[in-house]
Structure formats: C-alpha cells, structure tokens
Design a protein that fits this description.
Layout lengths: L6 H6 L4 H11 L10 H14 L4 H10 L1 H7 L6 H10 L3 H12 L13 E11 L4 H4 L6 E10 L4 E9 L4 H5 L9 E3 L7 H9 L3 E5 L7 E5 L8 E8 L16 E7 L5 E6 L6 H9 L2 H14 L9 H25 L5 H11 L13 E2 L10 E2 L4
Parallel strand pairs: 1-4, 4-5
Antiparallel strand pairs: 1-2, 2-3, 5-9, 6-7, 7-8, 8-9, 10-11
Length: 384
Amino acid sequence: MRHQNTVFYDLLKRVPWDAFTKLAAAHGVDARVRRLPTKTQFIALLFATLSGASSLRDLVNGLLSHGERLYHLGARRVRRSTLADANAQRSPEVFAGILQLLMQQADSKLRRAIADTTLLIDATSLPLNMRSARWARFSAKLCGAKLHIIYDAAAERPIYAAISAARINDITAAKEMPIVPGATYVFDLGYYDYAWWAELDRLQCRIVTRIKSNTPLQIIERLPLPADSSIISDCIGFLPQRQAKNRRNPLDHAVREVRVRTESGKVLRILCNDLDAAAQEIADLYKQRWQIELFFRWVKQTLKITRFLGVSENAVRIQIAVALIAYLLLRITHAAHRLQLTPTEFARLVRINLMHRRRIDQLLEPTIAPDQHPQQGQLQWNLT
C-alpha cells in the first residue's frame, strides 16, 4: 500500500523550516538543549492548538497516543515538566519570527495596489488568572494580556501582531505599529489621538474612524446626501484647534464627518480625511471593521487561546504566536486546496483528522474500514 502522510504533516510542510533553523541558531535557543529542541516544542504546541488540548497533560497524552508518528513529523517524545520549563524560559522570538514570515506570505492574487489596501486595526483582551499577576496585573483582582492586530480585510489575514499586558492602552501599542504609506486604515475610538492621526495623514493614508459624541466640528460645507441611505449628514469642517492641556491640534486641515444611523437606531459619527470619496463608501469602509471582530472571535473559539498552558509572559507570548501561526497555516492550506468549506468547517475537519493518514483534498471523501469490503457498506465518514 502506498504510504500516506498525516494531515498534520501536510500542514507542517508549509512552515518555513530553513528560516526556523536560522532563527533558532540566531537566538541560541537550542544551546546545550538535550531533551526538547525548539522544533519539537513548536510541533507540540501546534498540535495542542489544532487538536484543542486544554492542558499540558492533555497535550502530552495526545502526543503519546500517536508516538509512532512523531518521528515522521520530525519531533521527539515530550515530557510535561520539560515542555513547561521550555515555555517559561525559552525566547519567544523564534515563534514571533516564523509568524512574521507567514504573515508576509501572500498569494499573488491577493496583492493589490496600495491605494486599494484596507487595513483594520484593533485589539482584544485575553483573560489570565492571578498567577500571571507579576507581569499582567490589570487591577486588584484581574489579570490579562492584549493582542494587537493589523488585519488585511481583503486577504482575511493579519499582517502584524503584537502582545502586551492588558493595562497598555491601544493607542500606545498603535504608535509602535509599522505604517504602510497610502493605505486606508480603519479603527475605532480606542485610537483617539490627533497626533497619531496627523502622522497617518502625513504619510498619505486614508483614515476612517469614529469621533466622540462631544467633539465639536466647525462646519464649513454641507454635502448632498444619497437617496434611500442610512446616512443622515455629510459635511466638511475642522476639528478643535486645541487638545487637552491646551496643546495645539496637529491635524489642522479640513476633515470629513459622515453621520450614519445603524439598524439599532444608534448614530455613528465617522471621520475621514478623504474629502472626495462618496459618503456611502466611507460608511462601508467603517463597516468593514466588523471583520476584525469576527477574526478575534474565530481565533478565541476555534483555536482556544482563552486557555493558556503556562502563566509566565514568555509562555503566553509563545502560545499566542503559535495560535496565529496555526490560523495562517489553516488559511493558506484552505486556499491552496480550494475546498468548498467555510474556514470554521475546514478547521473542524482538520481537528478530527489531524493524525489520520489522509490527503487534505480528500478529507470529505468516505474511507473504507480496513477489515471490510466496500460492498458491505462499511464506510467511515470524516465529517457529518
């Protein structure tokens, strides 16, 4: 019988292993390591993410049950205490580097002119228990981390990720993000900073965001409204010349304000520095922000990053990086095989068949039980 690799093996083939080896050497993570090289650590954590393991014990037992296949994955046996120590002490830079490389990989069909690129910025909170208080304390009784993301709306994948303690303001993290000149950036009230807006404007980026209900706008022109639309006003004006503590507002030229009434009746004040675009286009751009909310929900629910296998900052950073790598591997594989499945359905199918010897493009096909004849109707389906 022709040898067939596991579904997990096919996913791992998409990892840039040459770069992984170079990163491991550059950061010295495997120096004097005998039992658990970083590659095995990575494979184990990726297995935990894709299989839904909720603890180190589940992870180790799951790998142990497939021990004969670890060799073909390029991994070794994993001990719980050794893995816990590696997660707590080993540098997360190797995992962050692989994540960055995968985020940079884009299919040629997804590459667009910068002017057509819409990037969504947001952050999500990840609750932690009090054992992480040393680095992630948020209040007297709460601890948490934040995942800051720049999300390419058209490609449906993150292009930048950063992790911080939950007490770090969103705008503080945003000021460290790389900016693509000429792109469209969409973000919410967590990034309310005139100086940062002015920097985006200086780089010829289009800004689409919300302004606070109590922010005055000196209106100089009212524009006609589209018929049969949820847009209730469209005007051009100037933001206040002074900020808090009497600082001068660096965004001193005219901006656009489009007011939209949502289905719930709430009125949104949307600000844009594009004075020529149609009001409906601006409203539609802001509506795209929902995509990054769906991304956060998908990652939390499907890849289970609300449960952490360690409490140290190192362990949390590594696990989040591996979860995002898993997301990208699933997206890249799903797109490559052009399966008629939603991303969620594909992820569930991979989880069910992770260590089965099947081709990914045949996961929806029935398999015949090895001790049965096909005419007896003994078919095992991989998805119901």
